[in-house]
Design goal:
Elements: H1 2-9, E1 16-19, E2 36-37, E3 42-45, H2 59-70, E4 78-84, H3 102-109, E5 112-118, H4 124-133, H5 137-140, H6 149-152, H7 159-165, E6 169-174, E7 211-212, E8 218-219, E9 223-226, H8 237-252, E10 259-264, E11 272-275, H9 308-311, H10 314-318, H11 330-360, E12 367-373, E13 378-379, E14 385-386, H12 392-395, E15 396-402, E16 435-442, H13 446-453, E17 494-500, E18 519-525, E19 529-537, E20 546-558, H14 570-573, H15 577-583
Parallel strand pairs: 4-10, 4-12, 5-16, 6-10, 9-11
Antiparallel strand pairs: 1-3, 2-3, 5-15, 7-8, 12-15, 13-14, 17-18, 18-19, 19-20
Helix pairs in contact: 1-2, 3-11, 8-11
Length: 595
Amino acid sequence: MIVLFLALVLPPRPFLTASVTGSLSHLSHAESHTTFSPSTHSVTITKPTLFLCLSGVRISVWCVCYSVFVTKLNIPKNVLFIMADDLRTSLGCYRDSVVKSPNIDQLASRSQVFLNAFAQQAVCAPSRTSMLTSRRPDTTRLYDFNSYWRVHAGNYTTLPQYFKSNGYFTMSVGKVFHPGIASNHTDDYPYSWSIPAYHPASFRYEKEKVCKGEDGKLHANLLCAVNVTEQPGGTLPDLESTEEAVRLLKSMAYRDDPFFLAVGFHKPHIPFRIPQEYLSLYPIGQMTLAPDPDVPKRLPPVAYNPWTDIRKREDVKKINISFPHGPIPKDFQLRIRQHYYAAVSFVDAQVGRLLSALDELRLADNTVVVFTSDHGWSLGEHGEWAKYSNFDVVTRVPLIFYIPGVTTVRGCLGESTFPFIDVLTQSRYSFKDGEVRRNVVELVDVFPTISYMVGLRTPQPCSDVSFQVELCTEGHSLANTFQHSEIRNEEAVSFSQYPRPADTPQMNSDLPDLNDIKVMGYSLRSWDYRYTLWLGFNPKTFQGGVNVSDVHAGELYILADDPSEDNNVYSDFENSALMKKMSSLPPVSYDYLFK
């Protein structure tokens, strides 16, 4: 019977060459050789691989797997692009011991996880525009929320637009582009999307007085755990977005054209308006303060973020915190951390529902899934809250790629790839089997990487001046990391930046308008160091707005000794061989700043 079964699913020849949905190179215990070519989705399997079907207790499993792959010849891969808002690397798969994130950890276990991925600017609109165009903020000319790159900088092709132009049906749910002026009040429709972008109706109440306080009245609070049934419409934005995304997946399940579905969840962005039951996952008595809650003594004043956005919430105003450093009372700090983690678990549940639907619709075997965030968020580290700086804790983001047939071969014989895990009852999932990469990478790398992995032509690298070039990338494709074992690359670097209106903290230091920017902090992150220069900046100069000779301050953190970036040793090494080494690192687009 075994021989008959093999004849049904495998060609009679001893060698098999087929176009399938990915690579089988990591089938355990197989002494086979495979090569992966995303441009053709081809896999060449040599003779020893066939022995797998004849050995051990996994006979039927592997043979059916082959059947699944071979029957999906030449089917274009779909893309499910999931983005959280303000999510730092507080996930189980990133070794956070506090958080409960079983669904994202399950995704990571079937994926390749980049441990050192960095955003180009730690605030929503600039980061999202940069990632989705694969252009850095100095090229998009967007440092605030008040301009549209196609008008203010150049008519740059976006990631979803590129897929749309290549035959994909592109859809946006929730916060993908930053809404408003930054995306032309249309989420860049119709350039980027086949249909108008969807925004949940309940988002209009996000900053309203909908949080019940201790006095029984409704307030516009930072901490806003709610009874969902008592909220306007009886729902929350991310719940609505999940429902709409699932509906769209169902509508695409049996269509011939491939799809690109981008889903942006609003949490854990403030206010922490989340279902109150998620707080039970994080008893306040078990919460701890940030390990480095004080402002570093050698931190330049220009580098400090005075977290003015959370100061505007009613419950924070009530405790009358001094400007700019505070501090926030310790009991309130613990509650902020509790609510942030609860918001992460709430997002995890939405990701789980979305992936479960993908699975149930039999789309998991031919859909690339990418999970990331626009930037991180400080939870008291360095005496800071929110984002708006160049520290690791706000620039470092999760970046997870699930490539069916490349990062996993699961899903055979009806086995579920992404079964939903109820975080409220089963809060832990042991992260295992996922491929981990420690390479220093950037969000501008996402566009070329996804393009390559589904077989589209990777955009060409941008020239030094590319304002008139519609399609090019200021990032790099990470595709080679899926094919080769990791080799430590000490020369890899990422670049982030943040604007300031002055050399000292101001009420608009977190998000200055373009015309108010006087200083720009350019930050280089290598494997071992973070090196930041705060330079004079002229917002009226479209090109060359930075005065490289006007150094306002500098920061240097040696990460091997100071992983939390608390001890700025810039003044100790200002004219040293170490600084010369940092200045000689390979250029990206800010090479002129570090020479």
